[in-house]
Amino acid sequence: MIGSLDSQARDYEENGKHADAEGLYRQLQQHLAEARGSDHPDTLKIEYRLAMSLARQKRTEEAIALLDQTLMAQRRVLGSTAPDTVKTEWSLVNTLRSAAFAICETPDRSDSDYARAVNMFQRAVDLRPTQALAHCALAWGQFQQKHWQLSLASLEKSVALNVLGGFQWYLMAMNHSQLGDQQTARDWLTFAYEWKFKLPKEQQDPWVNKLTKQALALADLENAWTPTDLTEADYVDVYSRLVAKYPRIAWLHHFRGCHYAEMGQFEKAVADYVKADECMQTMDRSRHHALHLYALSAIYLYLGDLAKSESECKRVIARASNDPWEQRVLSEVCCYLPSGTFDYDKFYSVATIRYARTKSRHYDLGLYLLTAYRSGRYREVVANEQKPITVPALLSVAMAHKRLGDNRSAQEFLERARNRLATQLKTLIPQVITGYADRPTQFCWLSALLREAEALIEPGKQGTETKAIGQRKDGEFHHSASGEATKG
């Protein structure tokens, strides 16, 4: 009986019949409580499912009360770290947060409604004090209550735990606007704009877009505002002001480092990337946790310091998980280095699997051919010579031809890579580089790879000159915040 009722209730849930599922869960709960006891793990498991059924029916107050009751019993019976206990705790946190957001979005809400919502946000923080999203949600509630200093304090705690993206940055700007600090508000808006530019997926986030409009309005800026009139030095000033106020936010150092690199001030760029990595050590691990090391590796490689570049790559390898995205990026980063200490066959396997799934993606083709070249599969590389568009792909084909003794084809593909370099840098976002796009890092990697190819194919000529990213010559491009490019 118990098994059949449970199975039927789950079927109802899967088909959206939550009221019917609720009825069955209540029967199950009563039966199990009488047969096994109200604190039996099976009874508590059904109680949890009943609470989630109530939540799906938007009966959040009832759901929260039942989740509270279930969590207390599970902690007493199973312990705080038991899988069922942790699952209930997470669900309670999420239900509290969802209910609080719903209250804040209700028309004609009162001060007492905001106070109730903030209490829910605070309870979520108390349950999960190390969750960045919990502190960020509390900051949103405190902002709605017009407690702007408290909101900033919660945001700082949130960012110290993990970076959630544009929501945090725009809320920072909104709080500073309300406190009358329009300079800092505009600085945060500049950072938020660059963040969205480098992480295009956030441009489709409805919450981020909603906050964008509110933040711009509070700062007395038009909806279409963009910081396109800023020079690289202006950007450095923006981030320097923010770093002075918020020295522990890693991405402020990282973005300032990008602009130092654009200006050719590599020592300052390196110092900022190192500081960014230090700040990240106190944060929850995220898939962007090693981007500062990638940038360091790229700059060292561009400057010709292969040992330091390789050292940074090894630090990335030591931290890397089995996440497919991390493994793909790791394969790319390490394969820009002509080192004999990396397992290029492993990187080749990662890239081959990825390319087999996304054959229309030029980025994945470039990574596949570069890993094939590094692992000595020269004939496999030249067999794909009709496909390359990106610089890594073209240079991989050029060097493979050279290794196979075809100097003419090697020279042809080298020239095509040179002509393509400026165009690829111009269109980094989002067509060529997926996810996070960092132009200085890409420029350093591509330029170093070009220099390697030139040394192999044209050994008698002087290699590519190391120069500031913003000081390239004809056919190369300067950066602008809008993502366009202007000839230097």
Summarize the structure.
This protein is mostly helical.
Ordered list of secondary-structure elements with their pairings:
Elements: H1 2-14, H2 18-36, H3 41-56, H4 60-77, H5 83-105, H6 111-127, H7 132-144, H8 148-161, H9 166-178, H10 182-198, H11 206-218, H12 232-245, H13 250-262, H14 266-280, H15 291-302, H16 306-319, H17 324-335, H18 344-357, H19 362-374, H20 378-382, H21 391-403, H22 407-426, H23 428-432, H24 439-457, E1 477-479, E2 485-487
Description of the structure:
This protein has 488 residues and is mainly α. Helices cover 71% and strands 1% of the residues. It has a two-stranded antiparallel ribbon with strand order 1-2. A hairpin with a 5-residue loop joins strand 1 and strand 2. Helix 6 runs antiparallel to helix 7, helix 14 packs antiparallel against helix 15 and helix 15 packs antiparallel against helix 16. The longest helix has 23 residues. The radius of gyration is 27 Å and the shape is globular. It starts with a helix and ends with a strand. The C terminus is likely disordered.
- What string gives the helices and strands in order? HHHHHHHHHHHHHHHHHHHHHHHHEE
| Strand order, largest beta sheet | 1-2
Tell me roughly what share of residues is in helical segments: over 70%
Q: Tell me the radius of gyration.
A: 27 Å
Profile the largest sheet.
2 strands, antiparallel
Give the strand content: under 5%
- Mean of residue pLDDT values: 84
CA-CA gap between termini: 77 Å
Backbone structural class: mainly alpha
Low-confidence stretches: 427-436, 464-488
Form type? globular
